[in-house]
Amino acid sequence: MRHMAFDRPVLRRTRGLLFWRLLGTGRGTSMTLGADLRRWALLAVWRDERALEEFLARSPIPARWRREAVETWHVRLAPIASRGRWNGVEPFTPVAGGCGGPRARAPAGPAGGPVAVLTRASIRPSRLVAFYRSVPAVDRSLRAQDGCLASIGLGEWPLARQATFSLWRDAAAVRAFAYDGRPHREVVERVRAHDWYAEELFARFIPYASAGTWDGADPLARTVPGP
Known about the structure:
By secondary structure, the chain is of the alpha+beta class. The chain has a domain at 25-38 and 74-208: 2-Layer Sandwich (Alpha-Beta Plaits), CATH 3.30.70.100. It is 30% helix and 34% strand. It has a seven-stranded antiparallel beta sheet with strand order 2-1-5-6-4-7-3. 28% of the residues are buried.
């Protein structure tokens, strides 16, 4: 937990790191009030693949992960769609598959392969109670969704700044959860009608490499190569 503070100066000085967030995690598959104090995440946007490789090889942060962590999982993502802002910033620039740099290794589209989804919201204080009352039904629906490979709730600040990260078999599975599932659809309608969020972001990605394990296995082991 102390490194949530101590790692920040190191990350600010890291070359090629364009946007980053240190994130805590929840105990469930979506946003919950409970926190898992043993599991943490780093979301990072890199200038290019070389900057990422240098960070992994030389920075004291991943060196400590290798030394201290019981389990680590790493995924590389190419953004294919993004709308909204994160603290006033648009961190993800969608690119066409095969357009140079690391994205050249990504497939041309998500239709036939796995998709990663990141949602992030800054919840208005007056809407916190309504928001967390809506979470259990969505969480149950997510657990029952056939095409969801893995998911987790994330947070950069307790209660009010929350996010989810999920991996899906394909784009059709994402659409089935978002539009066919009644609990999720009803929450989205309430969000729009009652203006729950001060800021929000929704992004989709193509996972093009993964390594390590998440709860004992790599959820993308059969679908994408290692880095």
